[in-house]
């Protein structure tokens, strides 16, 4: 299980935009929508399976509710620590398809570089390092109403965007034999830019994503 919390955010103003648009309710609705499609605050499931491959390699398949990710990585022994460099490719479901034709999908790539330490008896392990990701999104979304006090739904508009994420991962795992409890937190800076209904919109946000789970190895 994991969840994303927005801890900081700002709008990147488009070139030539006047100061009078800063408080535009429609613009605010577009920014919230872009944030939900990219930074994706909220609670989500996390299910993953991994397999070792000869030559200090590993492959994995992960489902997070928002995406299905296939990745591979190679480990370099540095003595006691191990350096892991990976590459992941994701199919994205940024918003669920609706009966009104709404839905945003996309694809992404990410590169994690992690340094890890593991005890001799595998009682515990610690890992940390940066992760860089890029996503491309497209589809249709229904904007929230500009006036949150009304029950009126916003318009259905075309949506497209590019999302750059730079994060830092810190994780720890502890257990005995084949069963371990793992905890991980990722602090990420998000820059997203795109168009909603033909209007340009951009955001810069920071999130913290805590996660935890039970791992079983065979």
TrEMBL record:
Protein's UniProt name = Outer membrane protein beta-barrel domain-containing protein
Instruction: Give the species this sequence originates from.
Output: Sorangium cellulosum
Tree of life domain = Bacteria
The record lists the lineage as: Bacteria, Pseudomonadati, Myxococcota, Polyangia, Polyangiales
């Amino acid at each position: 299980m994991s969840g994303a919390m927005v801890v900081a955010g700002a709008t990147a103003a488009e070139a030539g935009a006047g100061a009078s648009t800063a408080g535009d309710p429609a613009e605010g609705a577009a920014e919230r929508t872009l944030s939900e499609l990219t930074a994706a605050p909220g609670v989500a499931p996390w299910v993953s399976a991994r397999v070792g491959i000869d030559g200090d390699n590993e492959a994995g398949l992960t489902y997070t509710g928002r995406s299905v990710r296939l990745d591979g990585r190679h480990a370099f022994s540095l003595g006691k620590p191990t350096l892991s460099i990976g590459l992941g490719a994701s199919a994205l479901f940024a918003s669920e398809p609706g009966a009104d034709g709404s839905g945003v999908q996309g694809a992404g790539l990410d590169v994690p570089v992690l340094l890890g330490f593991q005890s001799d008896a595998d009682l515990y392990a610690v890992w940390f390092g940066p992760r860089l990701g890029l996503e491309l999104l497209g589809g249709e979304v229904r904007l929230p109403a500009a006036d949150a006090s009304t029950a009126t739904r916003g318009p259905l508009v075309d949506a497209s965007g590019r999302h750059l994420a730079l994060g830092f991962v810190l994780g720890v795992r502890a257990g005995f034999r084949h069963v371990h409890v793992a905890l991980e937190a990722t602090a990420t800076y998000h820059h997203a830019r795109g168009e909603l209904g033909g209007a340009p919109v951009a955001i810069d946000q920071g999130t913290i994503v805590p996660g935890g789970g039970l791992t079983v190895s065979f």
